Amino acid sequence: MNGAQDLGGMHGFGPVVPEPNEPVFHAEWERRAFALTLAAAMPGDWNLDMTRFARENRPPAEYLAMSYYQVWFAALEAMLKERGLVADDEIDTGHSLHPPKPVARTLSPGDVAQVLHRGAPTERETKRAAKFKAGDKVRAKTINPVTHTRLPRYVRGRTGTIERVIGCHVFPDSNALGAGENPQWLYTVRFEGRELWGGNADPTVAVSVDAWEPYLEPVA
Amino acid sequence: MSGHDDHHHDHDHSELTETQLRVRALETVLTEKGYVDPAALDLLIETYEKKVGPRNGARVVAKAWADPAYRTRLFKEATSAIAEFGYAGRQGEHIVALENTPAQHNMVVCTLCSCYPWPVLGLPPLWYKSAPYRSRVVADPRGVLADFGVTLPQGTKIRVWDSTAEIRYLVIPMRPAGTDGWSEEKLGELVTRDSMIGTGLPKSPKDLAK
Q1: Interface pTM (ipTM) of the complex?
Q2: Measured in whole angstroms, how far is the alpha carbon of residue A54 from the centre of its chain?
Q3: Cβ separation of B49 and A24 shorter than 8 Å?
Q4: Is the entire prediction scored with pTM above 0.80?
Q5: Each residue's pLDDT tens digit, A146-186
């Protein structure tokens, strides 16, 4: 979706302000919101792409006004409610008021290290051949799905070069909808700064995105 | 998204308090329902607050500086080379190492969210997740470097890597001069978090002596 999360190339946010000796978390609630988000993914049975969509799927003014973990937490509440795992009256009272729904899995303390160490690799086997090879000229398609996509606006319609064929990976546009992993070839596509930002842009800058095959079309 | 520096008005204060209460309420509900175990939450927090952080990445970089065979493995297949240290898993399932050279300086961003190589760098700093960095680094990386007090030589090109998929990028900065014969441990002290994102450079032996 063309939401506020798609920030590349926007103006007006001011300088980057690094915080010296920044702590990992800035408040106790951030610690808990972070951990709840990771742990609830097991009973919630949602995938990372659904999580990302839940975070970006809000009015831009709201997204930009919220802090990072406020966005995480709002998405967590939304996903729990959508799946009927938690109801509004429970959030309001801070107690379970309805019987729990049966869930397939939960995260036990004994499994934490192993679950984190395993992660969730997204590369998949395929018998299909990759359509593009390194060096091919491609154009990022002009698409504007209202659902989740990982093709940023600033490269849409722009011409770049396939730099690397990464492998076949879970396709977020499908996975976020619960429509299956639908694995697709993934490429690193390099764009010259001037192709993205115009003739006055710094000629010594190039930017790459990792783009799935359905995002790309050949350039003759 | 707003940074924490913005939260200094009474309004923001009460908003944060409300968030705090809401988070606590949700944790209680989820615990009562048996969906989460607070002991597992504690372990998740402890992992990323105490165990996993940029010192992991610094060890990888130092080894790449000191051990040519390791360097070759790292640039060929970073995920497995990094796993030699036991660093693997969540948000680092597929890692690519980027080589800084006098000709090219690499910078990493996630314009769409906050993708970052957790096993080697830990959780991202606030600025990395913030709108100023995510909006600007793809269009004006030299301007962003200036915000960090970094100026590159004129002849150095900049390559920005937008982490739009599940590939996570780790910048391997250039080894500082004057470090011949240094141990991996000592070299690791020169490696800063920002030098592995591309918004900084490693410390020099002089910086270390300060």
Answers
A1: 0.98
A2: 10
A3: yes
A4: yes
A5: 999 999 999 999 999 999 999 999 999 999 999 999 999 99
| Contacting residues of A for B159, CB less than 8 Å apart | 190, 205-208
CATH 1.10.10.10 fits domain A137-218: no
Whether residues B131 and A13 touch (CB distance < 8 A) is answered with yes
Which residues make Cβ contacts (< 8 Å) with residue B139, sequence separation at least 6?
A8, A9, A154, A193, A196, A197, A201
- Tell me whether residue A120 is exposed, middle or buried, using C-beta atoms within 10 angstroms of its C-beta: 0 to 12, 13 to 18, 19 or more: middle
Q: How far apart are CA B166 and CA A184, in angstroms?
A: 13
Residues 120-159 of B with CB under 8 A from A: 122-123, 125-127, 129-142, 144, 147-148, 156-159
**Helices H, strands E: what count in chain B?**
11, 4
Contact yes or no for A153/B162 (Cβ under 8 A): no
Domain ranges of chain A: 28-118, 137-218
Q: Which of B2, B14, B80, B113 is catalytic?
A: B113
Which chain A residues contact residue B164 at CB under 8 A?
150-152, 209-211
B53-209: what CATH class? Answer: alpha beta
CATH number of A28-118: 1.10.472.20
Q: Chain B residues with CB inside 8 Å of A56's CB? A: 112-113
CA–CA separation, B100 and B107 (whole Å): 9
